[in-house]
Structure formats: structure tokens, C-alpha cells
Amino acid sequence: GLQKSGLKEKSFLIFQIQNQAMFLKVFWACILGGIIPAPVAVPEIYENSSSQTQKLINVVKLLDNALIVSDQQGEVNRIVAENNLPAKVINIDDINNTNNLGKIVSVKSDDSCLILFTSGSTGVPKGVLLKHQNIMHMSAGTIQANNFTNTEITLNWMPLDHVGAIIFLCCLPIHLQCSQVHVPTTYILED
User: Fold this and answer.
1) Which is higher by pLDDT, 99 or 9?
2) How many separate helices (H) and strands (E) can be counted in the chain?
3) Whether the Cβ atoms of residue 160 and residue 20 lie closer than 8 Å to each other
4) Residue 114: helix, strand or coil by DSSP?
5) Which of 15, 58, 151, 152 could cysteine-pair with 178, CB 3.0–4.6 Å?
6) β 127-131/112-117 pair status
7) Partners of residue 182 on adjacent β-strands
8) What is the pTM of this model?
9) Distance between CA 109 and CA 186 in Å, rounded?
10) Dihedral class, residue 177 (left if φ above 0, else alpha if ψ from -120 to 50, else beta)
11) What are the residue ranges of helices labelled H in 7-160?
12) Burial class (CB in 10 A: 0-12, 13-18, 19+), 18
């Protein structure tokens, strides 16, 4: 579905996905297809005055002509139009409901695989472009330093746009071949 939407190898895909299961499905589809995920926190409310919305706007401007995949398509389309942003929004249902499996690409260890953004609290967020080797070396070092085995079970309750969630609690368990559990942040933080 992603490649059919026009995404090519080494292109950026901005994530505006609230649903964790869908986020992870699209994340791994990107990795397998050589597409670079750019997760950005989904704003609580899509208003230009919101700092979360401003971060999304700034990221769209930084990744000129990037596609956005969202399960909040109406809201994201409105923000894109109101701010005259150079982006196209793809509805997650449109790529999820396809039987067309994408092509798995071969990657090199020094190929870019993920871009994470700083909070932007002091201005425009900065993108940190990670390569496959960055994530694999971090995973291998963490596994070795902690004597982790494939019998571990990781529990993530952080938002998936956070480096700790996506790298330590999503990528590391794949490297380790252990089980991982993801629960919504709100579930943990509620009374």
C-alpha cells in the first residue's frame, strides 16, 4: 500500500497515527520497503496555536513534499490546507485495505532508516537521522550489557514517536527475538 501510494525507497513518511497497532504495522512496512519513517506526536487538538500542531507543521516544512500517513486524515488535511503546506495526506485505511504487498528492499547498514525529531521547545525541531547500524549497534550493546535473552518480555507505555519507545521497546525486541507488549500511554497515566 505504501509503495502504491507513490512512496519510493529513501523517501520520508510523516506519521500521524494514534492507533499503536497501525503505527507499528506501518513502521515495519516502511523499514522493509526502505522508506524512512518520521513519527511526530499526534496533537491532542489540531489547532495552529497548539505546540504539537506547530511541531507537525515545522516537520512538514523540513521534509519538503513528504507524504503524511494518518488515522486523523480530516484534521491533518485541514492543517495542511490552512498552512499551505507542501504535503499530501494518505488515509491509513487506504493503505491498510490493500491486498497488494509491497516490495522488500535490500538495505545497507549505513542506509538511513528512521528520523526522530527533537521537541522543538526552543524553536524549529531538529531531525536526528538514524541509520540501520545505529539501531543495531545500540540494540546489540544493550542486550550484551544487560545479559538479555529471547525469554524477555518488553512493556512499552510511551508514545511511539519517543526514541525510548521506538528504539528500545520496539526495535530492540525484534533484534532480541523476544515478546513485546505495547499499551496506550493514557492507560498507564489514568487514575
Assistant:
1) 9
2) 8, 8
3) yes
4) strand
5) 152
6) antiparallel
7) 156
8) 0.93
9) 36
10) left
11) 20-33, 51-62, 73-82, 92-96, 132-146
12) middle
Residue for cell digits 512512496? 7
Angstrom distance (rounded) from CA 139 to CA 155 = 16
- pLDDT for residue 98 is more than 70: no
Q: Give yes or no for a contact between 25 and 18, defined as CB atoms under 8 angstroms apart.
A: no
Burial of 143 (0-12, 13-18, 19+ CB in 10 A): middle
Instruction: Return the C-alpha cell found at 11.
Output: 523517501
What are the CB-based long-range contacts (under 8 Å, 24+) for 177-181?
177/150, 178/148, 178/149, 178/150, 178/151, 178/152, 178/153, 178/154, 179/152, 179/153, 179/154, 180/153, 180/154, 180/155, 180/156, 181/153, 181/154, 181/155, 181/156
Phi and psi at 114, nearest 5°, equal -160, 140
CA distance 128 to 82: 27
pLDDT at residue 190 tops 90: no
**Grid cell of 170 as nine digits:** 520496539
